[in-house]
Specification:
With about 55 residues, the chain is mainly α. It has one domain. About 50% of the residues lie in helices and about 5% in strands. It contains three helices and two strands. It has a two-stranded antiparallel ribbon. A hairpin with a 4-residue loop joins strand 1 and strand 2. The longest helix has 13 residues. The termini are far apart.
Amino acid sequence: MKVDGHGQAKVLTSHEIVKVFEALEYDRDRAVFGICLYTGCRISEACSMLTHRCL
């Protein structure tokens, strides 16, 4: 997360992470945030991931 738009990264606390998950309205958004959080990828990388659907 950027601080004051100056390119300085901030590490989110556990409490802040919970607040972000609670603030996200859609499951899709929670999934993308979780992927980014736990893999370290960027939003654009998470959004470009392909899914495999079982028939």
